[in-house]
Amino acid sequence: MKHPKEEVTFVMLKPDGVRKGLIGEVIKRFEQRDLKIVALEMFQPTHELIDTHYPKDEAWITRLGEKTKNTYEKYGYDLIADFGTEDTSKIGPEVRKWLISFMTSAPLVKMVVKGTHAVDVVRKIAGETMPYKADMGTIRGDFSNDSPALANKEKRAVMNILHCSETPEEAEHEIKHWFGNSETYDYKRFGVDE
Ligand code: ADP
Fold first, then answer.
1. Which of 13, 55, 98, 151 has the most CB atoms around it within 10 Å of its CB?
2. Atom number, ligand 1, closest to the C-alpha of residue 163
3. Beta carbon of 67 within 6 Å of any ligand 1 atom
4. 47 falls within a domain
C-alpha cells in the first residue's frame, strides 16, 4: 500500500486547452490544491500514440456510440442522416476517429500530478466530461460550454480542455504510455510535505 501522498495521476491538456491559453491556469489550479507537478512537457503527438492511448476494446467503442445515440435521441436529431446507421458499434468507431483527429490537431501538454487522492481530486478540479454540465468553479465549467449535441452536429469530438486518468491503475498505464522511462522530479512542497 502506497503512502497517500505518493498517489500519481496523468493529465494532458487537449488542443482546445492549449489554444485557449489555459496551460498556466490548469497548472495553477492543481498547485493551489496542494498537488505537485512532477513531470511536464509540451509535444506534438503522433496519430499512433493517440490511437493507442484510447482503448480499442469493443465495449469502450460501443459506449462512445451509445453516448452519441443518446444525444441524438434527446435532441431529436436524425442518426441515419448523419451516420447512415443506428448501430452503436458502427457509430462508436466514427466518434473515436473524430477524437483522434481532434487530439492530433495541435500540440498537447502532458504532466504527472502527485499528491493525496491525486486521481479523484484532479477529476474533481477538471469537472464533468461534458463541459455544459460541469459545475462552475471546475476547469471545464469555467472555460467551456461544449456539448455532444453541438460536437456531434459538427462531426467532431467534444472539446473539454483536458484529459485526466479515471483510476490509479489507468494512471499507471497512461504514465507508462506517455512518459515511458522518463524521470519524474519529486521535491518537498512547503506546507505540504514538511
Ligand atoms: P473522459 O475524458 O472524461 O474520461 P470518456 O472516456 O467518456 O471521457 O471520453 C473520452 C473523450 O471522448 C471525452 O473526453 C470527449 O473529448 C470525447 N467524447 C466522449 N463522448 C463523446 C461524444 N458523444 N461525442 C463526441 N466526443 C465525445
1. 13
2. 2
3. yes
4. yes
Domain of residue 120: give its range: 13-165
Distance 157 CA to ligand 1 centre (A): 7
Task: Give the C-alpha separation, 117 to 123, whole Å.
Answer: 10
The 10s digit of each residue's pLDDT in 113-142 is 999 999 999 999 999 999 999 999 999 999
Residue 166 half-sphere exposure toward CB, CA atoms < 13 A: 4
Query: Is residue 193 domain-resident?
Result: no
Residue 187: inside a domain? no
- Would you say residue 176 lies in a domain? no
The domain tally of the chain equals 1
Q: Is the CB of 162 under 6 A from ligand 1?
A: no
Number of residues that make up the chain: 194
Determine phi and psi for 47, rounding to 5 degrees: -55, -40
pTM of the model: 0.93
> Catalytic annotation on 163?
yes
